[in-house]
Amino acid sequence: MKSTCISLVLLLVMAASANSQEWAKKMFSETTHDFKTVARGAKAEYTFTIENKYEEDAHISACFSSCECTTPQIEKRFLKTWEKTELKAVVNTKDYFGQRDTTITVKFDAPFPAEVQVHIHARIRGDVVMQPEQAQFGTVKLGSTLQRQIRISYAGRSDWQILRVESANPALEGEAVQASRAGNQVSYNLLATLKGNAPAGYVNDNLFLITNDRDSRAARIPVPVVAIIASPLTVQPNPLLIGVIKKGEPASKQLVVRSTSSAPTPFRITGVRSDDPRFEIKPTAESKTMHLLPVTFKGSDAPGRITAKLLLETDLPNAQPVELMVNVQITP
Hints:
8-stranded mixed sheet, 4-stranded mixed sheet, 3 domains, Immunoglobulin-like, 3% helix, 23 strands, mainly beta
């Protein structure tokens, strides 16, 4: 089996006659995002993932935008093999409106000079204003149901309406109630609900206002919803990178599993399920608030990247099995 962790020296020799910067573009999860139509004042952010798929270390030397309406933010700039970083594009919907098309340029100086362009598109409505910029729930206890209110104001047609609120997420729902109407101005109160069936993890989704706008592109307005659903357990690091090892060699890395409640509850790890038998965790029968667990990889004779999913089961009340992703790179 051929290694999926490619040496850039070999890659660039093979691709010398083609675009010599394609190696850098392959590190990006995607290179374009269209926000479509957004209300003025609404939060408009999108995150691109950058992953170093090569044996050499990578370094991002610069990152800049072609328009002041969009600000790029890089989480970290040095990336070892299989390490990831995030490029966040933040559109300023308060001071700009109309069609906004922006190019973000990301430059690399290691292992070789290269640049990748990421394209952002947004149509910011000046006639619809949203306050606050999103439905922000903060950190929420698992199983809780909460609500947030957002004011939607419109100035334009006298017959403008929000017809309904849609959601593709079963844990989110919304209701828009008209608060006032005078001439060509109307306001609604949007009640956004985060339901108790939301799973543990990060919620970064949208409710959609469906309006009677004649332009179909403008008739669907997203309302960002953000929350962190706190699990009673946390696993760190996750994903776990065991490292780059030679074929046939075993390796291990330590994992920390802990109770996250304000008054930590002792618990036992009652079982571990793995979709790859080469990865193993042997928990003790002891009940405690924090477990230090070695994750062992037994070795492989086939070079390449190996990714496995492990599920940790505990006796902690109301705790769902915790999913752990594990990666290892095998070299010849």
